[in-house]
Fold each of these.
Amino acid sequence: MNDPAPPQLSVSVQVRDLHKTYVGQPVLKGVTFDVQRGEIFVIMGPSGSGKTVLLKHLIGLETPDRGQILIEGQPIGQPGVMDTYRLAMVFQSGALLSSLTVGENVGLYLSEHRLKPPADIDRIVTEKLDLLGLQNVKDRMPSDLSGGMRKRVAIARALVIEPQLILYDEPTSELDPLMGIVIGAEILALKRRTRVTSIIITHDRDLAFGVADRIAMLYEGRLLAVGSPHDIRAHDNPVIQRFLTANFNPNFNPHHEKHA
């Protein structure tokens, strides 16, 4: 008798010719890419490039005008597909409920859906918090935590379902550079421990080049390039190079740049 197949720890994602227009304004213009099982795939670009709209499509909150998104080759719009796989989202704000303790926030999905008895939920919550270096905060309120700790609690909450895919929305926003490094290190450590597929939406260059297996550069609704961090750094596209090398210049004139 053959041994049962091991549980699938991660999933692949395919995006095919995605188009979206709002009020006559094209926002996504034929976006196509593949995310391999177990990789950290970063979608990077400046504000207004379409990253948020793309994220909403990836989690099924928006329907494209044309094109499709597939998980393991199955269109996410097909009935039951989104329920077949374990997908988790880490929101930019953390989205913790202020009236619940940290432990109650992390275990909320399991308790609301009655997926585990209370003792098991408590054990799982403790395990996930420990995994993120958050020992002894289970009974504290979100308002008592620093911004970086709230981000890590949000990641712990995502992990309770043992996800095959985690989507991160600007995970280092509103954090100081040192805490941004901590969050990046946690994302890398999770990949090593769980082999989960990760898609990160960000404009944080340090995070992108620090954690990504591959980076997709999005600009004005189009992908300019997809490749390894080395490939993206070496790319000769002037828009990519401007984004990667931009630094504060006290003589910069934004009005001149806008109309140039």
Note: The chain has a mean pLDDT of 86.
Amino acid sequence: MLMSISSKKYGQGDSSYQAANKLPGITKLCEDFYHYMDLHPEARVIREMHPKDLTQSIEKLAFFISGWLNGPRIYQKNMV
């Protein structure tokens, strides 16, 4: 039997991962995060620690957050 997201509580199982719209939603969040780092001078020092091309940084962060939200452990499988 499938449970809907609304019947699960945040933090139980993969409900937080599901609520974030799985990997596509998490990837969008990471893209937005780095976009705002580019816009705000306060983030300049940390942004400069990353490469100009953020493709791999976005992917790594999205993979890490996926596992952190009890979704697939993609980071551990692909990045370590």
Note: The longest helix spans residues 22-39.
Amino acid sequence: MSERRAYLDRGIGELRGVVTLDGRPERLLIRRDDDEPRLMLGARLIARVASLEPALGTAFLDLGAGAEAILPFKPDARPVRGQSIEIEIRGEPRRGKLAQARAVGPAEGAPRLIAGPDLLADLDVLSHGAKLVEGPAARLVADEAEAEALEVLHPLPGGGQIAIEPTRALTAVDVDLSDRKGGDAKRVSRQANLAALGMAARLLRVKGLGGIVVIDLVGRGHDGNALLAAARAAFGPDNPGVAIGPVGRFGTMELSLPRRIRPLAERLCRDDGALSDLTLAQRLIRRLQAEAAAQPGARLVAVCAPGVATAAAPLGALLAEQIGARFSITADPGRARDSLDVGEAR
């Protein structure tokens, strides 16, 4: 029977919540101090209908403070421009796309936030009420989840691997036997495909990926019924909103998964795929915290690239409130962006 556990890492300027499935990360939720709460999954708001696109069945909403969202509607439930409605955010914004909302009911007054997102409540629901773990163990699990969310290649138990690569149109999942051993090629392929479906479901959740997913299965002569049943079980936790197609003539399975959270790669990386200055700054601050705990009273120095140092400055001010001003952050113009050094001051 599958076991889920919940972890909360309380960082400087950041909360990271993780749900694990049988010891491996399944969900990674990140909340940063500069996040716009109006656009986070689960936020409840009073919104104003700013404009309508009847041909698309879409209303554009003003959420206040410059935040926007879209609201799909049916012809018999068309809103009126200028009216106020209560909504809930059901899909966070992603690159080039606005947040998606669902209507709750009529409302009055100016656009405003009623209730912000609740990370602890989300973790409780996603982990099925598992006891929350905090402290060093939670940080270790959160670091592992963050690393896995950014990987492309993932080894399968028993050999082989899957590659998960999102594009603008869809997410491609490729199953590769690689070094998987076995005498019966058909049996080996079947085992790899079944393992790949379970792993792909977990990894797509931890990466925050949804929309159209195409899984390129390995081998030929697939047992379509067995694979469809396995896919339904693996992607069951993503319901409601999951649609799974049969194995096609080219050995691929197509799925449609609901988009709920912003993809983790977008949250942690720049448009070019490199880690953002803020993500690197968060890692630098975590290293400073760890070194400060390991060397109580020591004066520390952190050295990083200029952009990272700028992003880390406000976080460093918050850290100083906790451990005192016994560290410095130095910008080195010649240093690579991902090179972060923390040590005792000489």
Note: Residues 151-265 form a domain with the Aminopeptidase fold (CATH 3.40.630).
